[in-house]
Amino acid sequence: MTMAERQHSCTLCSNRTSTMHMLPKNPEFQIKWLQFIFGTMPQHYNSKLTFCSSHFEESDFFNFGEFSRGFTIKLLLKPGAVPLRQSTTSAHLYNVYYYGRRQESQV
Ligand SMILES: [Zn+2]
Question: Is 80 part of a structural domain of the chain?
Fold first, then answer.
């Protein structure tokens, strides 16, 4: 797997959605994210790592309910939430993406 450095696309699955989440500033959470991605704490990594929402649980977001009903196009990640999903196989979140994309007509 190559580390794509394009902005606004998911480091893990290359998804492009309106809801991307950057590596947290808090070092404690950063370590958790990096361990999720690399399996261990790497010596070198791209601090601009970006994940799409499919690697998080619905309960990791403040406003998942509003998002899924189309009231907002931006999901807000709770502080301390760490990515848990390795891939985008969650059918439910996939549907949510699709919905989010339709709202974003310029993409
Ligand atoms: Zn992703």
Answer: yes
Q: How far is the CA of 48 from the centre of ligand 1 (A)?
A: 14
**How many angstroms does the Cα of residue 83 sit away from the middle of ligand 1?**
10
Q: Max Cα separation, the chain? A: 41
DSSP 36-57: HHHSS--SS--TT-EEEGGGS-
Number of domains, the chain: 1
Distance of alpha carbon 90 from alpha carbon 39, whole angstroms: 21
What are the tens digits of pLDDT across the range 48-78? Answer: 888 888 889 999 999 999 999 999 988 999 9
Which domain does 93 fall in, by range? Answer: 20-103
Query: Taking the complete model, does pTM exceed 0.70, yes or no?
Result: no
